[in-house]
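BUG: 3D viewer hangs when loading the predicted structure for this chain

Environment: internal workstation, default settings.
Expected: structure renders.
Actual: progress bar stalls at 90%.

Input used:
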Amino acid sequence: MRILSLLLFLAFAITSLATAPVTAQAKVGSATFSGIVIHVSDNNIKVMDPKTKQSLGFLIVPKFDQVFSADGKTTYQMKAIKAGQYVKVYYDQKFLGQRHADRILLLAQNNAVKSKQ
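Structure tokens produced before the viewer hung:
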């Protein structure tokens, strides 16, 4: 009886853990933030919205390769991002509540598509 109740409890716990993230969290990268890059390093990027003066930091996983032009046709390496550039960051907060970048779009100074170089 004790083993049966333990198995039922484990089955319930696994089922609740498997279904909770699906219903409670939004799609990956569903939130966006646009602004000027203040700081960029190997593991994070900090962006400030010049209109509201709000700044957000985002974690970047090692070997992050989701840097695109605004039209999505051109890819860039992470080293192409410099302080002072306009970017749009698609992010989520799944991992331990920390914001992490899923995709970064490089924009021109007027928030238009960056020209191909």
